[in-house]
């Protein structure tokens, strides 16, 4: 699946296509008519209806695509930003289980052999050669079982050491994976968001750059101007109050008490700034 950043680009393009189609649907809206349509008008209206139907079908298809992209973005972000959990397999887990079973079996065998030895000790000590031979066999079997237990203990320590090395290896891989996820996924989302912010800021800067010429046009209009009020529209405080009204001041750490939308400030001040020329003074 694509990264969420690319999916967001696909979603933006899809929404743009939907908006274009909606505008096309409006252009093909049925024209109101109070008279009987001519043959050519009737053909034109039927063509508009056909086009509206095709556009509506395409809009519905693209809305389905957009809904799927939104789901994919949500799922991809969840995957990209979720902590990376590495499954840590244990190569020696089955071996460890078998070694422990063998140790327990050997311990049970030794207990059984000791019980049988106790039954033969008296007879062997009394000179019963068969009992003596059997007792010797049991001692050898018990020694063999004891050696098996010692080997099992050594094997257990070795497997535990290998397990510790596995855990360390996978801890390193897990840390690397989390670092990669944070750098490539989470950081990429921040960069993509900030790139969009940069574009909007450049657009805002370009828009505000047109404002001085508009204010100068008011001054050059030939009307009488209240310079004090007009000059107040040039101050940065007017823009700061507008930023406060739009909720932008907090993000830019602009400290100002009043919140006044820019259009409201301009409308209020210009209504008192621009005055009709005084013809009496000119006549005099």
From TrEMBL:
Q: Which UniProt keyword terms apply here?
A: Coiled coil
Return the annotated region ranges for Disordered. 29-52
Q: Where is the composition biased (Basic and acidic residues)?
A: 38-52
Coiled-coil positions are: 96-123
Protein name (record): Uncharacterized protein
Its organism's taxonomic lineage begins at: Bacteria, Pseudomonadati, Pseudomonadota, Alphaproteobacteria, Hyphomicrobiales
